[in-house]
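ok new one. same drill as before - structure tokens go in, u give me an amino acid for every spot. 232 of them this time. try not to just spam alanines like last time pls lmao
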């Protein structure tokens, strides 16, 4: 296991652990074990915050940008064995916490105490696997979302609006098939379709169509690309 000095005075512990995660090259399970070891070197009161920092930055990790090699410890077969033993257990505990709709700070405290440190996760690699399985889960990072004002409508109204948007929906489908150099170009063109709609309910219905079709229209995760375009 690579040896790492403690965080320098110019870095917070959160910045240190994130920098470590983004800088280590190796399979994700081996990297997760190194990160878990670093978290556990910290005072107990800081560990949930460090876990949160990892969860909120893990998707920035790029293997070709990593600079320090982590020795291989776990084989693909060992990873499969850990998935078979603990995958559903971690999934269930994580889902239960998400459904409680608690504030972010409380969620990460519970995630560390109830999942990463769960007594049900015993044996070689179990807790490192739990951290890895959490980090790659699509429900992470966690957000407390207020669904009270999310748009709902009767089926008949939804179908009526969908018919009105038939041309817009067709244009989105057409744009997704264009062979452009970058996906952000496709996302930008689709964003123009959304911008042409002034009614929020219409935009919601159109987005719902994209969400239901994104896995069948050329394999392009358009939601992700729209998010990138909106941030640019």
């Amino acid at each position: 296991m690579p040896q790492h000095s403690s965080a320098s005075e110019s870095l917070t512990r959160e910045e240190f652990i994130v920098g470590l995660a983004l800088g280590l090259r190796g399979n994700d399970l081996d990297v997760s074990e190194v990160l878990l070891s670093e978290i556990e070197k910290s005072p107990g009161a800081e560990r949930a915050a460090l876990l949160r920092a990892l969860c909120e930055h893990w998707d920035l990790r790029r293997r070709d940008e990593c600079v320090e090699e982590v020795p291989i410890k776990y084989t693909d077969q060992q990873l499969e064995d850990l998935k078979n033993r603990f995958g559903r257990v971690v999934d269930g505990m994580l889902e239960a916490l998400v459904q409680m709709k608690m504030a972010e700070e409380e969620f990460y405290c519970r995630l560390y105490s109830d999942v990463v440190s769960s007594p049900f996760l015993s044996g070689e690699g179990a807790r490192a696997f739990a951290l890895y399985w959490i980090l790659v889960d699509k429900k992470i990072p966690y957000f407390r979302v207020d669904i009270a004002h999310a748009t709902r409508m009767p089926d008949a109204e939804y179908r009526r609006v969908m018919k009105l948007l038939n041309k817009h929906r067709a244009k989105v489908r057409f744009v997704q098939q264009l062979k452009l150099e970058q996906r952000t170009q496709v996302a930008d063109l689709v964003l123009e379709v959304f911008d042409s709609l002034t009614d929020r309910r219409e935009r919601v219905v159109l987005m719902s169509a994209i969400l239901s079709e994104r896995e069948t229209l050329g394999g392009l995760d358009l939601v992700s690309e729209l998010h990138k375009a909106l941030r640019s």
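The first strand starts at residue 24 and ends at 25. and btw The mean pLDDT is 89.
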